[in-house]
Amino acid sequence: MASYLRTVTGGSSSNTNSTIPTNTLGKRLVKWGLIIGVPTAVCVAAYLVYRQQQEQAKKSATRRSPLPTPLTKVNEDSTTTSENRLKNRLTVAMDLKNEGNLKYREQKYNEAIEAYTKAIELCPAESMEELSQFYQNRAATWELLKDHEKVIEDCSKAIELNPKYIKCIQRRARAAETVGNFELALEDYSTVCFIDSYQPAYIMAADKVLTDLAKRYMETLPPSTAELSKDYVRTSLNEFENKNKNKIFFVSFSTSSEAFGSLISASKSAKASA
After folding, report:
1. What pLDDT does residue 168 have?
2. Crossing angle (nearest 10°) for helices 128-144 and 73-105
3. Residue 140, domain member (yes or no)
4. What is the pLDDT of residues 31-57, one digit of tens each?
5. How far apart are CA 248 and CA 264, in angstroms?
6. Residue 70 placed within a domain
7. How many CB atoms lie within 10 A of CB 225?
């Protein structure tokens, strides 16, 4: 089960796999798991999804960054006033969050959601860390109310603001698995593996989802196509490597196979000819 991913980043980070829809990536990983083995595919998933979310966070920060203010006397006064207003809004939003936490502990979940919603609406867009916490708290409340679709929605917003929010990624993974969105669950469990140093519990969760997905996928294939093409996996992985300009090395796998050996050989040949 012990699998490790070591990456050496080179070149520009602008060309990442962020253009690939998350669930599309999840479906590809199912096929990879059947060929290169589930533990290996979990490592691939962890790296690729983490890269994707990092790029999304950069785009989110760019969208939310305020325009620079010219340094004139009038604008300095105006900026000071504006900053004070933002601080006041954040202070009130934090108070509302604390009120929501109190209602949550009292098991008054609908009132907690109302408080968190007001905090979200009032929180300045520039306060991304606090805003992500508000979404996470509301998602936790939706989870207790068993509204898993809203859990996914709020967690997604929180993760966009803070891609390393492990608690939120875990919560979205659970909700996704509950509603049957196994591709998203796989991606989230894999991301947590990467961020939190491949803790066994996360690896087992990702392993379970990927194994179940692989079985489901195989059941849909006619006998003539049940043997998946190794070329598909080689082409897909090399496509990601070329876009990201990263070298990906896999070491210390619990199992090895001829398919995986062919995959690495093809990858090295592609790099040598580049």
Report:
1. 95
2. 20
3. no
4. 555 544 555 555 555 555 656 656 665
5. 10
6. no
7. 9
